[in-house]
Design a protein that fits this description.
Helices cover about 35% and strands about 25% of the residues. With about 400 residues, the protein is an alpha/beta fold. The two termini are about 25 Å apart. The structure holds flavin mononucleotide.
């Protein structure tokens, strides 16, 4: 699932050296299910051809020659058709025009019709830092425009600084967020994800096959729903979702430290990380030499982070756990919910082929504190959305003064 499925997006391209990256943005929007039509400024056409854009969007591009060509795409029609105007890259010039209501190119015409949308600026660092550009961006934000901040890096002008077009995934994530219901606006959410590692020696460790996809999906959807999200991540190969603050950790001890600290400020804590239960009692600072016989490892329990969180849970804080079980799913999950003072537990079977480890899909039984259960199945983002909707509903219904301990969700 993607919040972009069947969404109609107008991609505005302006005269930046980063215009070639708009092709990747277009492809990624389509990959996530959106229908895309393109508008381009005369300067933009110097950087990228209409043939490329028309081939990929399967539709005529709206440029300044459209009226002469007699093509039936006028800015007003395109603005009625589109649900979002995404300008990527956005030049300093177009940003200035947007801030002043000037409509003298196909992209600025459209911007005035849409009223708001998303812009991804790309320009030289001095152009970006210029107080006029900064004032223009500030004004656009107050008018409801979302700005996908450029990155720092080596710029086309061979200078280093802020001005590099944001990554394609950040730009397209921000388009997804545009369409995500804002049920968690203003809430602080901490999500843990990925696998922990416990080192035996400098080159060997004990871990598990968690991909981190469920936790990353929760972080992304929560951010899209308007929450301020902190992701505490063990090892994964995943890209951090746009706008999510990430703290990377390796060991359970590191995860514990970060989790307890972040939980202090959180409204919601979701434990989706696959946290190792055991670690070697001893760590060898030198690589253990391979011997002829077997090697016996003595293991000890790691701290139970979720239990510590449950013990510290204050009034109005919500804690969600995951239970990966191979047998007696419901009983084991319910026991965990009670023992750890959780508000919700999402139980999933990790047995055989139905295992959620590494998969893009998941099937969980969401169990509430009062014993009510709900079966949720789908892509990890669909599952994340349903879990977060249940959390949002609970947050909304929190009676003043009631304590987390006796709350009936
Ligand atoms: C090679 C080249 C690269 C440029 N790159 C950028 C850029 O990355 N960002 C920017 O704001 N302007 C850039 N410009 C300047 C714009 O193309 C110029 O301001 C133009 O008027 C923008 O028109 P538009 O906003 O209607 O597309 C570049 C110009 C040239 C010649």
């Amino acid at each position: 699932m993607s919040f972009l499925k069947d969404k109609r997006i107008v991609l505005g391209i302006t005269g930046s050296i980063a215009a070639y990256k708009a092709v990747e943005v277009l492809r990624e929007l389509q990959k996530r299910g959106a229908e895309v039509r393109v508008a381009i400024t005369p300067a933009g056409k110097k950087f990228i051809t209409l043939l490329t854009l028309e081939s990929l969007s399967s539709y005529p591009v709206y440029d300044e020659s459209v009226p002469e060509r007699g093509t039936e795409i006028f800015h007003t029609e395109l603005a009625k058709w589109g649900e979002l105007l995404l300008i990527a890259p956005a030049t300093a010039n177009t940003i200035a025009k947007l801030a002043c209501g000037i409509a003298d190119t196909p992209v600025t015409d459209l911007a005035l019709c849409f009223g708001k949308g998303i812009i991804a600026p790309a320009m030289n660092v001095r152009m970006y830092k210029n107080p006029v550009t900064q004032e223009n961006l500030k004004k656009l934000k107050t008018l409801g425009w979302e700005v996908v901040e450029p990155k720092c890096g080596y710029l086309a002008c061979r200078e280093v600084g802020k001005g590099k077009l944001a990554s394609v995934s950040d730009i397209v994530d921000s388009a997804e967020y545009w369409f995500t219901p804002k049920l968690l606006k203003g809430k602080k959410i901490v999500v843990t994800a990925g696998a922990t590692r416990e080192y035996i020696d400098p080159v060997r460790f004990i871990s598990n096959p968690s991909s981190g996809k469920m936790g990353y999906a929760l972080a992304k959807v929560a951010r899209g729903m308007g929450a301020e999200v902190t992701l505490i991540s063990g090892k994964t190969c995943l890209t951090t979702p746009y706008g999510v603050k990430t703290i990377t950790v390796e060991t359970v001890e590191e995860m514990k430290e970060a989790a307890l600290k972040e939980f202090e400020k959180a409204d919601v804590y979701i434990s989706a990380a696959a946290i190792g239960d055991y670690r070697p009692t001893e760590y060898s600072t030198e690589k253990i030499k391979k011997g002829e016989g077997s090697l016996l490892l003595k293991l000890e329990r790691t701290p139970d982070i979720l239990k510590l969180i449950g013990e510290r849970k204050r009034e109005k804080q919500i804690v969600v756990g995951f239970a990966a079980e191979t047998e007696n799913l419901l009983e084991n999950a319910l026991q965990k919910l009670k023992k750890k003072n959780l508000d919700f537990i999402a139980a999933n079977s990790v047995k055989g082929s139905s295992s959620a480890f590494g998969s893009d899909r998941n099937a969980v039984l969401l169990i509430k504190r009062n014993g009510k259960t709900e079966k949720i199945e789908g892509t990890k983002e669909e599952v994340a959305l349903e879990i977060l909707k249940a959390v949002a509903e609970t947050l909304k219904n929190l009676p003043n003064g009631n304590t987390a301990g006796n709350r009936n969700v």
